[in-house]
Amino acid sequence: MSLAARRVLRRTPLFDTHVELGAKLVEFGGWEMPLSYPTGTVAEHLACRKAAVVFDVSHLGTVRVEGPDTFDLLQRTLSNDLRKIAPGRAQYTHLLDDDGSVVDDIIVWWLEEDLFDVMPNASNTSRVVAAVGGADTTATRAVVAVQGPQARERLAGIAPEAAAVGRFRVAAFEWKGATCTAAGTGYTGEDGVECSVPAGAAPDFFGAVLEAGIVPAGLGARDTLRLEAGLPLHGHELGPGITPLQAGLGWVVGWDKGDFRGRAALERERAEGPRRELRGLVADGRQPARDGAEVVRGGEGVGYVTSGNFSPMLERGIALAFVETAACVPDGARVGTVVRGLELGATVGKTRFWPPEGSAG
Question: What is the per-residue pLDDT across 227-275, written as a single tens digit (0 to 9) for each?
Fold first, then answer.
């Protein structure tokens, strides 16, 4: 990364901590973020699946929206139906364009009756502010995600109230005099919580998490974990021209509420059926297909790969791909993905790869 590039990138309140830990830093969404630490992405991935890790996800936006009209504003702007939840809960939702495609996928933290934190992706914060108003409070806090089967147990010794927050619930907690917020959300397929901590308190909080035996993990492991869990990434499985129905996320659409941006386009697509659908691909070997690779069946192109990587848990290449509905490709079908001019074999299946279907995990 050039010095000129470094000067224009934003840094989280934990940047110095990442440098001290020897993180490999990369540009992501306009921020300088840790890709991995000296142990490496695979070790960080396995630590999340088997124990607990901590991510700095402060690059994600926070837009605070408040006032007596906020509920109605969010109802007519975002796709999901806030009537399904209540204050003290979180909800996954989409901001749509007029054509029904996903401008951004968002988590809403409903803090109090007329107070919401809307959490967009890093590069989309300004678009969300334009759509819902409010104040961009991203720079005032860090967001620390503690994830894994031992996440709550280890976090309990530091912040017991945060560790006790239920899945998709939100609650305030105090840490060394700082007022923080915890939500039972994450992006790994594992249990855990995300803690919004005032910027000034964030380095000490992150340090306490590390002292509890929770391993630092970077964006590399965050990506392989979310891919194994079949979770979409904006710019890959979601974005311009891609609707929630194509991505298999029809449950994010509040069909029973009033009008919202993109509704008419989605209703047409629902009536006609999506022209493509998101599917999972498990490669025959360790080499994964990569973004943009063509998916072929019987010598004909039937789709393209949106995300691909090596799965540390399956020890196979895995990928998500959009496949044309008209091609009628069933689960279990054999396809190929074209990588550097070579066709690699793969099996079509569900978008969630881990835990395997039918397992107790």
Answer: 999 999 999 999 999 999 999 999 999 999 999 999 999 999 999 999 9
Q: What's the CATH number where 88 sits?
A: 3.30.70.1400
Q: For residue 184, what is the DSSP state?
A: B
Residue 13 CB partners (closer than 8 Å, separation 6+): 58, 141, 142, 199, 200, 202, 203
Tell whether 356 is covered by a domain: no
- What's the pLDDT score for residue 80? 98
d(CA 226, CA 307): 11
Structure tokens belonging to residue 82: 């806030």
d(CA 20, CA 221) in angstroms, rounded, equals 19
In a domain, 355, yes or no: no
Which residues are CB-neighbours of 243 under 8 A, at least 6 positions away?
96, 99, 100, 101, 102, 262, 265, 266, 269, 274
Full residue range of the structural domain in which residue 281 is found: 250-349
